[in-house]
Amino acid sequence: MKNAVSHHRLGELYKLWLLLATDAFFILLLWLISPAYLLPLSGLILLFSGLTGGLWLVLSRLQNRRQLSAWQNWVRQPDQDHLLKLRQSGSSACHPALLALLQTQRQQLEQNQQQQQADQQFVELWAHEIKTSLALLGLLQNHYQSQLPTRLDLQLQQIQQRMNQSVNRMLYYSRLTDAHPDVRLRRLDLT
Question: How far apart are CA 147 and CA 140, in angstroms?
């Protein structure tokens, strides 16, 4: 990319030097044909070249802005309409291989985002299933509590608490990467 930018700047400098060389050639011809008109007409030639060069620079800047805008629009939304506008902008960097590479990277990014959403949904579904099983275990434990030895009942409660904490921790970590994290509102006593 840096090489393409340097070639573009060399092309611009080449055009300016060509304009100055043309001026020098016409001033030399004027001197050879009629040295008496050299001073007034060479000033006119240089003035015209300065105006032409200035106009060329302004138009070149405007074209560069249009090209940059077309690139930014295409990168934000790489559809066929923006691609057509990019090609119409006359961008010298609008090479099909570069466009194909950018399109491929955009598709990979979208696939990664879809995979991340699928993973998030899987974790949430898994956590729901585990929490449902733990809730059922808690109900059964409460129902048969009088028939269970005290030590076994305490062990089951500890296992249930640890599993709930682990599931909640896993949900918390999976939501950290989510673009829209959950908001948990709770009352806080400020007195």
Answer: 11
Backbone angles phi, psi at 136, to 5 degrees: -65, -40
- What is the pTM (predicted TM-score) of this model? 0.46
Of 127, 64, 137, 71, the C-alpha closest to 102 is 71
Q: Indicate the DSSP class of residue 180.
A: S
C-alpha span between 190 and 180 (Å, rounded): 28
Both tokens of 92, joined, read 């010298």
Please tell me whether residue 191 adopts helix, strand or coil conformation. coil
Res 156 pLDDT > 50: yes
Residues 71-127 have pLDDT tens digits of 788 777 777 787 777 777 776 555 666 777 777 888 888 899 899 888 888 888 888
Structure token pair of residue 60: 């070149």
Report the C-alpha gap between 127 and 166 in whole angstroms: 10
